[in-house]
Write a structure and sequence with these properties.
CATH topology: L-arginine/glycine Amidinotransferase, Chain A
Number of helices: 9
Structural class: alpha/beta
Shape: globular
Radius of gyration: 18 Å
Largest sheet: 3 strands, mixed
Strand content: 15-25%
Number of domains: 1
CATH superfamily: L-arginine/glycine Amidinotransferase, Chain A
CATH architecture: 5-stranded Propeller
């Protein structure tokens, strides 16, 4: 498998059905703030510029609780864990980078690029989830050893997973390397559709800020893909799944319009989770298109976005339980 080689296109398929998660993991941070170690690759982060760290942290906690409440109110089961004061992990609010859960009974732990993010991994929380849900993931795959060879993959930040078709879409970057993708693909028998991105001369740090997949739609910033062939190949591949493709521009991507996750309520209805800032960046026609694919939940996450460089999707690790 060549992670940089697009998948061959196929005839349009029917719109996807179910398979959405109605459970998520969230992490209530103990030391949220601007992370200098990740700022070199994440151009979405903004330095605090003299702001009190305690003020930033307090506001991030308020936004965290607002999102948790909104999700639970819409029928999503939220499993929230409290981070510890030590070690200091300023990005712990983004758990989808270190763990993913799969319905075949697999849990994967990922090799993260920044040293101070590797301390976020908490296998005891996976144990607690098994107890709370009364289930067991039969296989735990630990890919963290790849860091020793400078190979990285940051979970569902690095990859957008089409779990039904077993395709991982990935924008290559310092945090998403070919060897990391190869290890994931071999673990779960996925195919990889890799692309190259560039914004102001730098690759987009995570795929999930320029692209998302919903139950029946895809949102993507094609402007961030400089190669015409890769743009065309991605568009053809997305259209072949039967999804409606909603394009966003660079400015909308920078406002996190691509950073969304479609979940299911307990009644099975699709819920599209994104931030208030992201929703406000969309044109009325795009909002109408989006609302045709599910109920939109859009809490305000300005502090988390501004200083953490991530948004709603980054805060959620969807919990797919063994069938």
């Amino acid at each position: 498998m060549n992670p940089s080689e697009p998948l061959p296109s196929s005839k349009p398929a029917p719109i996807l059905g179910g398979g959405l998660c109605h459970r998520v993991m969230m992490v209530r941070p103990a030391n949220f703030g601007w992370n200098q170690e990740t700022s070199h690759s994440n151009r979405f982060q903004v330095s605090p510029e003299g702001m009190e760290s305690s003020v930033i942290h307090t506001e991030a906690l308020r936004e965290f609780e607002s999102m948790r409440t909104a999700l639970e109110g819409a029928g999503v089961q939220v499993h929230a864990f409290d981070d510890d004061q030590d070690p200091v992990t300023p990005d712990s609010i983004f758990p989808n980078n270190w763990v993913s859960f799969h319905s075949d009974g697999t849990v994967i732990l990922y090799p993260m690029h920044a040293n101070n993010r590797r301390a976020e991994v908490r296998t005891d929380w996976v144990d607690n989830l098994e107890k709370e849900l009364g289930i067991r993931w039969s296989r735990r795959v630990d890919l963290r050893h790849l860091c020793e060879q400078d190979h990285f993959l940051e979970g569902t930040g690095s990859m957008i997973l089409d779990r039904t078709r077993k395709v991982a879409y990935a924008a290559l970057s310092p945090r998403t390397t070919p060897e990391g993708l190869k290890a994931f693909a071999q673990t779960l028998d996925y195919k990889v559709h890799a692309i190259h991105t560039s914004v102001e001369g730098h690759p987009v740090y995570h795929t999930n800020v320029m692209m998302s997949l919903g139950q029946s739609h895809a949102m993507v910033c094609l402007q961030s893909i400089p190669d015409e062939g890769e743009r065309k190949g991605l568009m053809e591949q997305l259209e072949a799944t039967g999804r409606q493709v909603i394009e966003i521009d660079r400015d909308q991507m920078i406002n996190f319009a691509g950073n969304q996750l479609t979940l299911a309520s307990t009644s099975g209805d699709p819920l599209i989770v994104m931030s208030k800032r992201a929703l406000a960046s969309l044109r009325p026609s795009q909002v109408r298109e989006l609302e045709g694919h599910g109920q939109v939940i859009a809490p305000c996450l300005m502090t988390i976005e501004h200083h953490g460089g991530g948004s709603a999707r980054c805060m959620l690790a969807e919990i797919a339980t063994p069938a």
